[in-house]
Amino acid sequence: MTLVILFVGLYGLIVCDNLIRKIMSLSVVQGIVVMSFLTSGYRANAAAPILSVPESIFVDPIPQALMLTAIVIGVCFNTLALVFVVKYHQHHGTIEISQIHER
């Protein structure tokens, strides 16, 4: 299922002519990458590595910490990209890539 959503996001990046749709597609791809990376650190019946019995199986906290950072960076990138698109639309009146290339 994650591959289907990944390919939908990649399809949107390649095919869409609208810059806002491209940003949304990039956000979908980023979300799938974060989800797949977090599931790589999952272990069934594992405990958090905080205040646990030393002999128990632990969940790896590194993917969670890295993906928390990736989520924050992704939100900042999406916000900055949307601000650029809105400013470009205010100055030039279009956000369609085909019209941008014609200029």
Structure description:
The protein has 103 residues and is mainly α. It has a single domain, classed as Orthogonal Bundle (Helix Hairpins), CATH 1.10.287. The chain has 4 helices and no strands. The mean pLDDT is 89.
Summarize the structure.
The chain has helices at about 1-15, 20-40, 60-90, 95-100.
Give keywords.
103 residues; Helix Hairpins
Describe the global form. elongated
- The N- to C-terminal Cα distance equals 40 Å
CATH topology: Helix Hairpins
Quickly count the helices. 4
Estimate nothing, just give the exact number of structural domains. Answer: 1
Evaluate the radius of gyration.
Answer: 19 Å
Report mean pLDDT, rounded to a whole number.
Answer: 89
Total beta-strand segments? 0
β-sheet strand percentage: under 5%
Q: Judging by the overall fold, what is the CATH architecture? A: Orthogonal Bundle
Largest sheet, strands/sense/barrel? none
- Which class of secondary structure composition applies to the elements? mainly alpha
- What portion of residues is helical? over 70%
The low-confidence runs, each spanning 5 or more residues with pLDDT under 50, are none
